[in-house]
Every structure is written in C-alpha cells, then in structure tokens.
Design goal:
This protein is α/β, with parallel strands linked by helices. The chain is 13% helix and 32% strand. The protein has a single domain, classed as Hypothetical Protein Aq_1857, Chain: A, CATH 2.60.300.12. This is Core domain-containing protein.
C-alpha cells in the first residue's frame, strides 16, 4: 500500500529522512515499544515517530511506500489504513492530518523525534 505526502508534509519529514532516519506511523493504542502501556485513549491517535535507521521496529513490521521511502506501522493500525492514504499539513495548526478516501482519520498527527524523547 502507498501513502501520498503533500509537498508540505514531505518537507516536514524530509529533514529527518535525509539524516538516514526511519519513519514509523504509530497508532498510539498502548501496543508496541513506542506506546506506553496504558496510554491508549478512546480516540484514534496517530503519531509519526522518527527513529534511527538501526532502531528496532520489529513491532512495526508492515510498511507503506512513500516518496520518502518506507513508513512502518503495526498490524493493529491496519483497520484505519485504507485506500487513498494521505498525510497533509493543516495550515492553521501546522500539524499533520492523516486521511483516506473515506474519512479524516486524525487531524493532529504529531512528529516525535525518538532520540529527543529517549534522552530525557
């Protein structure tokens, strides 16, 4: 499956991929190594997590093709990732918006640099 990135979304993520980082589209559902146990909510919340190229992403074994390379995700996100996937930038909030042909999945997708988070 493929995910389309608008020019604005690509520009936000390109700075990371040019440094050799991997992109993970994480459904924050409390599963997988990047979700805190018990952190899930009753809302659908996605994040783009930027990780080093050698980071273990085995929980995120499926990938989407994009102009910036593969974007990894976990099986529990499959139900949301239907045809026509797109990441674009909300001009007001400057956050990413994840949508497909049928619906807006998440209006406020944050980009999280895992190196910054794990160093705290």
């Amino acid at each position: 499956m493929e995910i389309k990135l608008t020019t604005e979304a690509m520009n936000k993520l390109k700075a990371y991929t040019e440094k050799g980082k991997k992109l993970v589209l994480d459904l924050d559902d409390g599963l997988g190594r990047f979700s805190g146990e018990g952190d899930c909510a009753l809302i659908t919340k996605f994040r783009v997590i930027v990780v080093d190229n050698d980071e273990d992403v085995s929980d995120y074994s499926i990938h989407l093709k994009s102009v910036l390379g593969d974007i990894y995700y976990k099986e529990s996100a499959t139900d949301f990732l239907e045809a026509g996937l797109q990441l674009k930038v909300n001009p007001k909030t400057q956050l990413l918006v994840l949508k497909n042909n049928h619906e807006t999945i998440d209006n406020s997708v944050n980009i999280i640099d895992f190196d910054s988070v794990k160093s705290k």
